[in-house]
Amino acid sequence: MHQYLFFVGDFPIRAYGLILSLSIILATGVAYFLAKQDGRWHNHIVDIGIYSGIAGIVGARLWDVFFFDWAYYSHHLSEIFYVWQGGMAIQGGIVFGVGAGIIYARHHKIDILALADIVAPAIILGQAIGRCANLLNGDAFGAPTGGNFGIIYPETTLAYHTYGAQPLWPAEVWEGQIDFVIFALLLIFRAFPHAKGQAFSLYIMLYSLARFGLEFLRGDYATPVFLSFTSAQTTSLVAFILALIFFIYCQITYSRQKKTVKSKINKNRIKNKRGY
């Protein structure tokens, strides 16, 4: 685990920033491949990746500052800009990144839901790689395991400053691994007939479920904010419910459209048989 890969003079090249940048680049590359395979909008993917990547970083930081740790940053305003210390909420990154993508798509008259379905696997792949950055930086860490198993972080990390040399649950590692599984599941789902908007909805549901469960093992921002749920669990619960409702709505609309098309085909067949 190396926070600093090397130094250029006194300037550190941090593993966190390098891996985070790599996650955006690779996610954009995969989105380009999927869009070109689909045959639509691949020429817009690089621009969307740049705008959404920048918006996602800003959103992830602001979400963490104002929703998760405002009690600290309200007294340390200058540290809001210290993104290299960690403190990036992926849920804020998704909201802002997707928001930037929607604005771009509307401006270029691109079907937003169809595009979201295409790039959904790429988004979760980027998240999976991004969790490697968290591991190397020693943030998004787990709570103490209470035993002699777990990750012991270096003294320079936030995890060590919080819990010392106690073994911690590998929460960020497991989340990254689950994200890779979700990536595969989304690719499999897209190979079968489905309604427009369902692939993206499924991505939101699967990630929300994973994040909700893993929050029980997290050691940062573990203070309950709603009933006994943390901020991330509350957000995940709301996101899952909304995505599930939309998933069902898309399926109902899709089924109705199929019935309408079948009905028109049957009517045309009857007319043709009667000689009309």
Distance between the termini: 76 Å
Structural class by SSE content: mainly alpha
Order of H and E elements: EEHHHHHHHHH
- Cα-based radius of gyration, to the nearest Å: 22 Å
Helix content bin: 55-70%
Strand order of the largest sheet: 1-2
Number of DSSP strand runs: 2
Count of domains: 1
Poorly predicted spans: none
Counting DSSP H or I runs of 4 or more residues, the number of helices is 9
Strand content: under 5%
The largest β sheet comes out as: 2 strands, antiparallel
**C-alpha geometry:** elongated
Mean pLDDT score, rounded? 87
Can you characterise this structure?
The chain is mainly α and about 280 residues long. The chain has one domain. The chain is about 65% helix and about 5% strand. The protein contains nine helices and two strands; from the N terminus they run ββααααααααα. The protein has helices at about 15-40, 45-70, 70-75, 90-105, 110-135, 160-165, 170-190, 200-215, 230-275, and strands at about 5-10, 10-15. A hairpin with a 2-residue loop joins strand 1 (about 5-10) and strand 2. Helix 4 (about 90-105) packs antiparallel against helix 5. The longest helix has about 45 residues, at about 230-275. It starts with a strand and ends with a helix. The model has no long low-confidence stretch (mean pLDDT about 85). Keywords: Cell membrane, Membrane, Transferase, Transmembrane, Transmembrane helix. Its main location: membrane. It is a multi-pass membrane protein. Pathway: Protein modification; lipoprotein biosynthesis (diacylglyceryl transfer).
